Amino acid sequence: MQGMSExxxxxxxxxxxxxxxxxxxxxxxxxFEDCSIDGAGSDARRASLTDPSKQxxxxxxxxxxxxxxxxxxxxxxxxxxxxxxxxxxxxxxxxLQAKTANEVLKAQERRLKLQKLKGELVxxxxxxxxxxxxxxxxRDAWVNWPGRVAAILSAELGVDTATMxxxxxxxxxxxxxxxxxxxxxxx
Length: 187
What we know:
Distance between the termini: 78 Å
Strand content: under 5%
Helix content: 55-70%
Mean pLDDT: 82
Low-confidence stretches: none
Structural class: mainly alpha
Shape: rod-shaped
Largest sheet: none
Number of helices: 7
């Protein structure tokens, strides 16, 4: 036997025997006349015919940049929001934790886009406009209420309508003045 067996070449190339069998069928190996494998020739042919993204690289990996602490804390916060184990601050974040946090964030973003498309989610400016309009309508309804009910209440209680109207109006205005002090925090 001039060359290597499939098993020997698989060990030499660092792949499974099945991968070598597939390479033989695909014509990516150089064979001697006795059907044994020419190691050097097969290495060269496999390197030239194999998709570069699927090749194993024995080249030194470039140095990785340090990840900013803000990014690590964001990963931890995202994982904690989902009830997953978050890295200890000052510790290292594993690739799996970062990938999980990234997938969670992408899923949250997709959910928000879907809610917006369905009309379940509105912009903050639109919400403020709607809230302002609703509050103004509510205020106007309360301001007009004493004029509508003063006559009815004065007839039932047997008091002067004008006095009842003034009394109700002063109470409603005092109450609306208290409500005006309440502010909603829109970040």
